[in-house]
Description:
By secondary structure, the chain is α/β, with parallel strands linked by helices. The chain is 42% helix and 17% strand. The radius of gyration is 20 Å and the shape is globular. The protein starts with a strand and ends with a helix.
Amino acid sequence: MQRTIIITGGAGFIGSHVVRLFVKKYPGYRIVNLDALTYAGNLENLADVENAPNYIFEKANILNVGEIDKVFNDYHPDGIIHLAAESHVDRSILSPLDFVYTNVIGTVNLLNAAKKIWLTNNQEAGSRNLFYHVSTDEVYGALGQTGFFAEETPYSPNSPYSASKASSDHFVRAYGETYHLPVITTHCSNNYGPNHFPEKLIPLFINNVIHKKPLPVYGDGLYTRDWLYVKDHATAIDTVFHKGKIFDTYNIGGFNEWKNIDLVKLLCRLIDEKLGRQAGESEKLITYVKDRPGHDRRYAIDATKISKELGWRPSVTFEEGLSETIDWYLQNQEWLKHVTSGEYQKYYDLQYSKQ
């Protein structure tokens, strides 16, 4: 079945795994990767599929209405998977407006573009149309020692990042209610895995352990997160896109709650084993640093709904996924070198500018 799907933020961490999965799994689909290639967008993530006949890359910024409208008019997508976002909490504390622009206004620009394509002359959208918005569990705020975030949990965002994502969620829902635009939203827990930009905890600490640099742990290290292997998240997105109920919401979690300090110690132990270092050597790199403002104590996702209704469950435990992730970084030191040096930003000019 021929379909055209625009995946925004497809050169980013999660987006690249979704693009790769769809390009390889659905050769009859035309997959358009729309990405502005800001600092976290890396086309080296997709070098293995860039020449696939059903893959197209379009460099465009979701803040530029003209660029977005051109892409939508050129390809007339029947599906949109929206992953483009500013996502780093620390950056949002330093520069909240960047998150408002990209996560809120950028999302509204995409909703308007979809509305123009699908809802012409006040007609209903087609049965195959879908605007799939990928969000975060952080919109729910923080949990105590017990309990889980469910789809009905009230919003209570505590950081500029989560506030911007909460706002974008509300706009998506409003477009579904007001214009009958076919929408679905999912909220995921913390992702980890290959190709993760090394500003986030796991890739940063893997890189630091490899190079014997300090491991800065916020506060007392007892902050708790649910961790989701990025390849499992990609299969969940695939499942929701094809089987999810329009106007509904699904939580996606890894059933893997870990305190930060326990995670870091596990990471140190695994890397020491893989590099043949003395047991406990890398744990000595752990240093406790001043906590960040508004740091939520605990997140935990109840992913029962997507499991029962759509049949999705994570395929790996955290220990398995973390081991595979470490192996990937150890085997892809050139990728890591390019990212940390900024060399990756030249990839677009080298591969696409002459086309």
